[in-house]
Amino acid sequence: MNTDHFVLYENIKQCVTLAGVAKNSGRHPKEADLGVISDAAVVVNNQTNRIEWIGKNAELPTEFGDLAARFSCEEEVWLPELIECHTHLIYAGTRHHDFALRCLGKTYQQIASEGGGILSTLTHTRKASPGELLESASSELEHFQKYGVGTIEIKSGYGLSLESELRILKCIQELQHHTSVLLAPTFMPAHATPPEFKGQTDEYVKLICKEWIPEVAKNKLAVFFDAFVEEGYFSVEQARTMCEAALASGLKLKLHVDQFTNLGGASLAVDMGAISCDHLDNVGRESIQKLAESKTVAVLLPGASLFTGTPYPPARNLIDAGAIVALSTDYNPGTCPTRNLPLMTTIACCQMGMTIAESIAGITYNAAAALGLQKELGSLEMGKNFRVCQLKADSYEVLPYCFGELE
Ligand SMILES: [Zn+2]
Fold first, then answer.
1. Confidence (pTM)
2. Which of 42, 119, 169, 307 is at a distance of 20 to 30 A from 218, taking alpha carbons?
3. What distance in angstroms lies between residue 73's CA and the mean position of ligand 1's atoms?
């Protein structure tokens, strides 16, 4: 075997492989499924950036024993890179004043009617130039990287006109040329009905289906389509129409569902074969069972519940039923302005009754599954991509324990 391009990382204090989580497709993650190897070694093929071998240091095959390129990592705990599977990262304008008003007791509806809320972000985003959007997005991305994130999903949805939505998606495309972080773009024109279509949501849906989705798909600007299925936003029937158009154009589906009301969005997501359905704070019992029997990943966003003071999603019921559960920040300027993905594991463990194993699976393998990337990413196994999160720590348990202060 030609080993010229191989690199050996040895004496790794702990390597969290998640091999068992991968074997069980992310369902019912147990501590043993984390596949923790103490005093580990990893051999990487630098040409393909794939893991050639992984195991205990003491069991390193002799053909790798005298590799010239080698690094000793005795202070480090390794996990697969963290995967952020739900963000609204590209926008302009801040919403801290909305927060100040909320702290004074105003409701979201009152704030929106006084010019705040999503429409204020929309106004600022429409006015922003491509250069301004790119600069702001690059800086946001650096924050995520500091927290160990190596792959990130980014949605459009603060433009809500074809021209501004395309500008956002092109910004994601441009951003990919400037970063080592893997970006997964999502087209989300159904984030809200824009002001020019007030009272005419059906007309807006028709436009999205007939013109916008084909345009985005033709230019390969997005992998996923997403819609906010919620009372006062888009109905299950409107969402179904858009999902059908998106599938016909070759886009995969992700949906915002059952956040404030149990509208049946999760059930629709499963029926449509969506890759994920996200939020689920008010998901019903029947939908939980349906999710458990499907491959649709349940993406939970505990930061949004914390920040808006609303109930947490029923993580325990979902996991115990057998659903594949991932965690994400939902990073956005209105309801969750944090880029701290590790902090979501702390909230998940402390407020949603999740175990450490479940929370770690939620930001690695199961988050990869929520992007359809689990064959390449999300666990450290032979043949998989070499993308790791390196912690200066004694144990992987510090990840949820450290309250977001990851080193
Ligand atoms: Zn969202």
1. 0.97
2. 119
3. 37
